[in-house]
Write a structure and sequence with these properties.
The structure holds 2 protein chains of 2 kinds. Chain A has no helices and 11 strands. By secondary structure, chain A is mainly β. Chain B contains no helices and 11 strands. The radius of gyration of chain B is 13 Å and the shape is globular. The N and C termini of chain B lie far apart (37 Å). The chains are: A mainly beta, B mainly beta. At the A-B interface, strand 5 and strand 10 of A face strand 5 and strand 10 of B.
Chain lengths: 112, 112
């Protein structure tokens, strides 16, 4: 089964509100990636974090990698209807950089 | 620059049959990974191909097999189909290990 846990599973917000999803791993990750999947679509790569404590921003999206490299978060400021979709974190697992394991994702819905 | 191309987009098969799904990676990408995504779940890693060899495999039975060709394109074969094999099958390519994946639009397989 999947060993990268994401919370919450679902989040419904009013347009303009902030949104955060969290990703946790029981083991240290060499890197973590974030993807967005629109309803009926396919995952689209957003970003990769590699360094302990790393913070990266993409417009209204802020990504963080924990100091212990076991957790990560994605924060969206002032959500828009275009932010709707499922956000997945993914990290290499099982001692292999080749096996990218995805969490179950957080489904974000935005009420206009 | 074409992204990842998968065919067919949809497929309906009967239990016990065999199916072949195809993937052409993004130009410049030599690594191809296959994922199975059930409804409401994150993508589950099936296997990864590099230099025409299976480099890593997930927890899938031997009914799932694959191939990579010299032009980096890849096939996923599933034998003795079960109802539980119904899912979205995603192909992802990357230029090398440790880079974000580019996903195709997927093949929706329905087993009846």
């Amino acid at each position: 089964g999947q060993q990268v846990m994401q919370i919450p599973q679902y989040q419904h917000v009013q347009e303009g509100e902030d949104f955060t999803t969290y990703c946790n791993s029981s083991t240290t990750l060499s890197n973590i990636q974030w993807y967005k999947q629109r309803p009926g679509g396919h995952p689209v790569f957003l970003i990769q974090l590699v360094k302990s404590g790393e913070v990266k921003k993409q417009k209204r999206l802020t990504f963080q990698f924990g100091e212990a490299k076991k957790n990560s978060s994605l924060h969206i400021t002032a959500t828009q209807t275009t932010d709707v979709g499922t956000y997945f974190c993914a990290g290499p697992r099982g001692g292999s950089n080749y096996k990218l394991t995805f969490g179950k994702g957080t489904l974000l819905t935005v009420n206009p | 620059d074409a992204g990842v191309t998968q065919s067919p987009t949809h497929l309906i098969k009967t239990r016990g049959q065999q199916v072949t799904l195809r993937c052409s990676p993004k130009s410049g990408h030599d690594t191809v990974s296959w994922y199975q995504q059930a409804l409401g779940q994150g993508p589950q890693f099936i296997f990864q191909y590099y230099e025409e060899e299976e480099r890593q495999r997930g927890n899938f039975p031997d009914r799932f097999s694959g191939h990579q060709f010299p032009n980096y394109s890849s096939e996923l074969n599933v034998n003795a189909l079960l109802l539980g094999d119904s899912a979205l099958y995603l192909c992802a390519s990357s230029p090398r290990v440790g880079y974000g994946y580019t996903f195709g639009s997927g093949t929706r397989l329905t087993v009846v």
